[in-house]
Amino acid sequence: MMETVNLFLFVVEAIAYFVLMVTLLHFRHRLGLGVFLTALGVMHFMETYLAAVFYVSLPFGDVSPGSSVFFSGKLMMILMLYLQEDAATVRQPIYGLFLGNLLTVGIAWVLQVHQPLQMSTGHTPDVDFLKEMGWLMVWGTALLYVDSLGIILLYEKLGEFFRRRVVLRFLISGFVLLTFDQIGFFAALHYFLDVPIAAFWGGWKAKMLAVCLYAAMFAVYEYRIRRIGAAGSARSISDVFGDLTFRERYNDLLERTGRDMLTGVYDRTRMEMEAPLMLLEALKQGSFATVLIIDADHFKDVNDGYGHLQGDEVLKAIAARLGTTLRSNDRVFRFGGEEFVAVCPGTDHEEGLLLAERLRWTIATSVKTPDDRPVTVSIGVATADEDGVDFTAVLTAADGRLYAAKKSGRNCVVGRSGVVKLS
């Protein structure tokens, strides 16, 4: 009966930990990433202490919630942090924990020089315990560093075989690295604290169960929450500190940096910085990203026939139609002259073709020269990862299809299978 109760509590603890930490991660743009990282770090002492001395009986063995629930959860949170940020962000909590634990050991050695007073009966300072826990935490953090590198590299490697099955990659990565961690950390527990070998298998089984629970909740978050609520969570809020540090002015300056002065869309320099990252993020999440190259047809005739000022007005009108037709998470860049590039994350090739055709039709029916003649565009469409896994390759494929659209008579969209629409 008690084993069943403990198992129920085990599952509740895992769910509560995941929900709390993912909430902090999801709203990191509002709360600040430091809130998530601090919450991730402050549990480290408790995890190590529980792994050393606190065990409960489950139907499959004796386990410590500190190791099986909370440390396992921390490693899976680090993988989720990598998926939503990058490796440079992931290293911050790991380095911080490692240095903090070394500091704990150092302070414990220094404290031995003191002659402490006993201020209350039964509460004698235990410096040896502090040193012992400090070394365990140092060893645990060193393992965490290796675990974090390993789980990220394995997740990426599995992408070669299961690119769009992010949950399966998440699950397998957790199984493999937490098995490695169980071997490494249990060796220290057995050496320092003489924890019996029998606890190894119970702890391993508990970690595998925890990975299954975290993977199931990750699937719910990934497909039901994050993709629906990403736009809302990305908006920052201001507070008194933001006002005092001119945050709004800074954000406004950042937003205006990299803008094309004529059309108001982002310029080529901004494209070269942001577009590769947008494709990388989409592929990392197991999704697609489609790139459109839009070129105004016979634009030289517009400049020659009506003057460059009228040509500028045509480019502004095209940019305006792109802005109103594309989705909120798409980005438009002026590639040069009369060419624009649209990057559409989370959009497969068929969706990209439909979007491009809607753009072509919208411009052809609403943008006109001064004598009321329609302005048309030709569009080339390419999609990652089917046309390449980096932005340069996908852009090159889209550019080749734009050239094919020009050869096909203009005012059309060309994708992987050829012309989509010819007027």
TrEMBL record:
One of its GO terms (molecular function) is diguanylate cyclase activity. The keyword Transmembrane applies. Its EC number is 2.7.7.65. It catalyses: 2 GTP = 3',3'-c-di-GMP + 2 diphosphate. Residues 287-418 form the GGDEF domain. Keywords: Membrane, Transmembrane, Transmembrane helix. The chain crosses the membrane at residues 6-27, 34-57, 63-82, 94-113, 133-155, 167-193, 199-221. The keyword Chaperone does not apply. NCBIfam families: GGDEF. This is diguanylate cyclase. It comes from Rhizobium leguminosarum. The lineage of its organism: Bacteria, Pseudomonadati, Pseudomonadota, Alphaproteobacteria, Hyphomicrobiales.
